[in-house]
């Protein structure tokens, strides 16, 4: 988990991240009572604009964000597989399967079932590149009367220029928009 400004770039290769659990209130998912504030059950990299994320030949599977209120006032979690708050990102040959926001036990949902890239702005746009990635069976739920959540089952990008080069998006779902891909800015998709 990286959350402070100035933390160095991150590079990951040949790793499987499985069964990560992130709960906004602490629970069975986090028996020690630790509480997630943002999401990223598999990987959270939320740093300044200088941080870069490079991941290759890796798998993120069955990671769950469990959004609960439980009196904490914090309930909305994003990016169950990975959450990159700021920074340019390149993913090559990465597989995302069965990651879920609003997993069993949730009172609230979230965005970006497999991955979420965000916290940029219209004046500070990050670059996200996906090369030959497989994104299958991921879910972004909107639960109950939530005003947030349910966007981008496979991919959610906010204020990012996105290039998707090859790969497969299949059987992803979102309760509101973008079952496969939800992006607010430029998206180029190449086969």
Describe this structure in words.
By secondary structure, the protein is an all-beta fold. The chain is 0% helix and 38% strand. It has no helices and 21 strands. The chain has strands at residues 10-13, 16-18, 21-23, 43-46, 53-56, 59-61, 64-66, 82-86, 89-92, 95-97, 100-101, 115-117, 126-131, 134-136, 139-140, 155-157, 160-165, 168-170, 173-174, 181-183, 187-190. The strands form 4 sheets. The protein has a 6-stranded parallel beta sheet, with no helix packed on it. A 5-stranded parallel beta sheet has the order 2-6-10-14-18, with no helix packed on it. It has a 5-stranded parallel beta sheet with strand order 3-7-11-15-19, with no helix packed on it. The chain is globular. The termini are far apart.
List keywords for this structure.
globular, 0% helix, mainly beta, five-stranded parallel sheet, 191 residues, single chain, 21 strands, six-stranded parallel sheet
Mean pLDDT: 79
**What is the count of β-strands?**
21
Biggest sheet, open or closed, and with what strands and sense? 6 strands, parallel
Rounded to an integer in angstroms, the radius of gyration calculated over CA atoms is: 15 Å
The fraction of residues assigned to DSSP E strands is 35-45%
Q: Termini, distance in Å?
A: 33 Å
Structural class by secondary-structure content: mainly beta
**Largest sheet, spatial ordering of strands:** 1-5-9-13-17-21
Order of helices and strands: EEEEEEEEEEEEEEEEEEEEE
Oligomer: single chain
Share of helical residues: under 10%
Shape: globular
Per DSSP, the total helix count is 0
| Stretches with pLDDT under 50, minimum 5 residues | none
């Amino acid at each position: 988990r990286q959350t402070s400004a100035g933390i160095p770039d991150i590079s990951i290769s040949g790793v499987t991240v499985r069964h990560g659990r992130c709960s906004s209130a602490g629970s069975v998912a986090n028996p020690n009572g630790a509480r997630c504030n943002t999401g990223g059950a598999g990987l959270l990299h939320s740093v300044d604009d200088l941080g870069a994320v490079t991941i290759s030949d890796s798998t993120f599977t069955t990671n769950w964000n469990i959004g609960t209120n439980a009196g904490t006032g914090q309930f909305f979690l994003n990016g169950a597989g990975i959450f990159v708050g700021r920074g340019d990102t390149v993913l090559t040959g990465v597989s995302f399967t069965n990651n879920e926001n609003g997993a069993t036990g949730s009172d609230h949902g979230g965005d970006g079932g497999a991955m979420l890239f965000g916290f940029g702005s219209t004046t500070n746009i990050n670059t996200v590149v996906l090369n030959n990635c497989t994104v299958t069976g991921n879910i972004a739920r909107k639960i109950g009367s939530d005003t947030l959540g349910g966007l981008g089952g496979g991919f959610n990008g906010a204020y990012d220029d996105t290039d998707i080069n090859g790969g497969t998006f299949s059987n992803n779902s979102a309760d509101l928009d973008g079952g496969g891909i939800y992006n607010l800015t430029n998206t180029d998709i190449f086969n």
